[in-house]
Structures
1.
Amino acid sequence: MSSNLKLIWNGLIPENPIFRLALSMCPAVAVTTSVENGLMLGLAVVFVQVFSSCTVSIFKSFIHPRIRIPAYVIVIALWVTVIDMILPVVSPDVYKKVELFVKLIVVFAIIISRLELFASKEPLIPSFFDGLGMGFGFLFGLCLIGAIREFFGTGQLFGYDILGFNPLLIMVLPAGGFFVIGFIMATFNWLEYKITGKIPTSGGAH
Amino acid sequence: MKLKDFSNVALLIVLPILLFLMVFPALVQAATGSGSFKKDTEIEISFGAPVDETWAKDPANYRVFQKTDPDIEIPVASIALNSRKTSAILTFGEALNLSSEYEVQAKNVTSDGKVLGNVEFLVKKSEGQILFTIFLGAMLINNFVFTKYLGLCIFFGVSQKKETAIGMGITFTIVMVLSAVMCWALLTFVLQPLHLGFLQIIVFIGTVAIFVQAVDTILRKVNPYLFKKLGVFLVLIVTNCIILAVPLINADSGHGPFQSLILGLGAGLGFALALFLMSCVREKLELCRVPTVFKGLPIAFVVAGLFALSFLGFSGLSIF
């Protein structure tokens, strides 16, 4: 059981998809103007990641290695279509804001890279927890960026007024997302440098 | 040198499209009526002869409505005549929807004291104008990288060297234009008649994958040097947001074949522009002394943020 917990922890901080692996940056900047949007898209990603990891893990012996990429894409597209039908029923207002990106989950690099690197080799249970960990890592990243941008941009959190004025309007503008991610990445690098004493190298973005 | 060969091939494909674009507005211009939008609250109509000022200045003489719902009349706030009294500008209290058609009916037009009868004007944007708006919007105003945040993965992955950035930009534009048109055809002729709209995600991603495979095969034969350089990124195109977002946006806003093509072209050129700008800055960044924790991606993000700020300036172009 502890190895499973380790898998979740691994996805949450040491291999956080957004800040450490630098995968799937597009939604991380685009939908994070408020925590609510980030939470919604994050939950959708957790759903798709967990279910496609499990599906690929179960059927891995049937998938010929040479056509594995199209097969993975079809599996992901299947679960994205499912969540794309569920979300508008559950929460129509937020869905309208993140609609395009829910459909674009198909091409999120993080999901297909976990299928390729983990789920296609490991049995069902570790694949489930790895998917859960990566999904939560993504959710955590989206919520963190969303919280920073919403708080500094509009002085609110979850739509509730906290400050009562707009400290830095630039944060909710397109440019703000890039700045926030750049600074959070630098903070992660700095923390790693303080803890391990090594100069970190950030991963390539794909 | 090899890259030059490749860009020649690309030019052969892109140039006819651009030429067509320039000629196209002239072809469709003739179809529009004698009314046109001035701003989003104004319509200009012109008469064949000078009209009486007292008649023209009376808002009760005009009936303005959207072509789709003739029952809902839009009240005219004020009217201005030009000095020769042959054209009038109607000003409205509320903003008009510039992408739909309006009809203006003028009752009992009077000229030199004589009543000439009723005249109808059809007011709509010409097709060329709409295409130009879409093109400009996709390329600059809503640049897919800097204001819609799509395709960031490749944007940060390929922008380290100018040469790869240019090659990637061209490859991307070609794949995008072709797949946008193909996806439109599939959606209109296959998915909609069969009521399979919910399958569009799966169908679109499949179409894109086929095109990328085709470009991959052609490039391998035509230019092995460039293929070696771009090989990895070609596969990455499939898992890129822009390339899937263009057909999805086309499907959502009900674009026709030309509009789909133009959106693909604008998005592709906008992406190539962003990639080129970024690669210029990043080549210089290599020589700078960046703080250790900011080395690599973090500083690239800050640079992209500055670019996004400057692209906000293009929003002034949206009057078209």
2.
Amino acid sequence: MSAETAPLLSVKDLTVSFKKGRQVVQAVAGISFDVYEGETLGLVGESGCGKSTTGRAIVRIEEPTSGEVLVAGKRLTGLGRGELRRARTSIQMIFQDPVSSLNPRRRVNDIVAEPIDIWKTETGDQRAATVREMLEAVGLDPDVAGDRYPREFSGGQCQRISIARALVMKPKVLICDEMVSALDVSVQAQILNLVEDLKAKYGLTLVFIAHDLAVVKNVSDRVAVMYLGRLCEVAPSDDLYALPAHPYTQALLSAVVEPDPEKATSHVTLTGEPPSPINPPSGCRFRTRCPSAQERCASEVPELREIAPRHQVACHFPTLRP
Amino acid sequence: MSNEQSSIAFPSTEELSGPLLRVKDLRTTFSTPRGSLTAVDGVSFELGRGETLGIVGESGSGKTVLARSVMGLLPRSNTTQTGSILFEETEIVGAQEATLREIWGAKIAMVFQDPMTSLNPVVRIQRQITESLRLHTSMDRAEAKATAISLLSQVGIPSPAERVRAYPFQLSGGMRQRVTIAIALACSPRLLLADEPTTGLDVTVQAQILDLLSSLQSARQMAVILVTHDLGVVATRTDRIAVMYAGHIVEMASTKRLFASMAMPYTQALLRSTPRISQPSHTRLIAIDGRPPDLINPPSGCAFAPRCTYATDQCRSERPPLRTAPEDPTHLFACWNPLQTGNAGSITTAKGEN
């Protein structure tokens, strides 16, 4: 699509390690990906795979151990505190729990205006007008909602307020970490539609982190699958779901339950659970649970390589398309 | 649906062939500082032996309160219950705790959503499983321990003889949920209530747990009530589905029938707002506008009317009773303007879009 143009967000060989006693947990073990302007990249994986840590490391809420993050060609990693703060106005994050990410003691108007107040970009009527515009954009009535407190709103409405706050500085990139996981399906659909509308309206570029494969497919142009700190497969959404090449992607997709009784429940039953990231398997990290693992998988780490246009997979024995 | 029905005595001759559970006009009301809240409002259904019933609804629909009512697990201090829940020949509504204790674990068991809080964090797995065995059966310690190990292996826990000595924090979320299932199954209950048993678990673990539940259920001829917000979870693993909204059952039918020809606009809206992997990327979801009503001041007509695209004046003023579909007497729905059967489940019907 836009392979010739430079990516807006570029993650290069990112690693994030945590110390746990004397041991080191490598939550993110060297991942690289690009996100192009106006694109939504979905990041899926099971709990503990490092997808949230990746999101947090991009905006440096979690300090990357090594690697680089570039936004519009500008390095985010290595910036000093002041510079980082300024850079963060163009890259915002939305979290899973909408209620706890809002200050319960501030009114909605002030919550949404907080970035404006910090940067003193606008005051008085102009500030009020921007807040109104943002609240309207996320589907809240500014006259009703503005003077209320977060506790007076449902989870879905609180998530709308978080979105308004994230967008008020007109960021280029939005990192959404499990932003609809806590919501009921009917509300989830409202928020997913809203995200699509706002993306078009404000020309946003999104990294959409979630564990729900159907939700990720719905919003994403491309999807990256993560397992135990590494990327398994990256491909355009429709390709990835139709022709998954990595055995892990296949296992994930076969486990999805669809609201259709005619769909036979044929699972590639993945036995066991992911191994501990403290002592990950040698070679391919998925090999201990992989149905097609061979000797080579234990000795050699599979690198992400292109098997079809824009379809990358990190597997020695991927399922190639017919 | 009057209260008088609750006093009807069921003939005991039907006992073995008849349903395992009969819920009649159940009404569960909580008193809250804002007023009384009717969480379950006149629910009736029957459950056969070995049958799997899915109860589907969004948060606040009353599905969890219904499950807890069946188990007799609601706080006594602020709860009023009317109607009847007849489990075999035992009435659960208003039962003494001594009666319930005989049933809990032995005849009805429950698996909760959060395995971390439903397990005792300072007690080894072994004692948590053997507790009900020692209470309800005449097993001695050694027999109970052997049974505990066998249960752990039945629920797919590797090296059960060692894991039985573990504390809950030493297990992963999926393993903990397997342990709660083992505890629930210990005394071979006739009814298992599973309240969102896989919410919060990863997809691969969810598939494992759901498969485990279905295989155990058919092996043990156990009836299961599967409470969930996810239509996907119930689609392939239940015999019948009841859809709840604002404390009412708004539609109930066999699983096949429900998905093939749903009559209730709410069921359709729920299905249409669920993203699916079979749809292409960026498919516009048909969201349900607004949100569920406040159950302290419920609307006078159909509770779904304010959010329903088909609502008429009648819907807003008069509550639709639960009635039977003409083609299928087991299909019940509460709607004045039911969907045309046949195309109801189709995603492409233009009428529902807004």
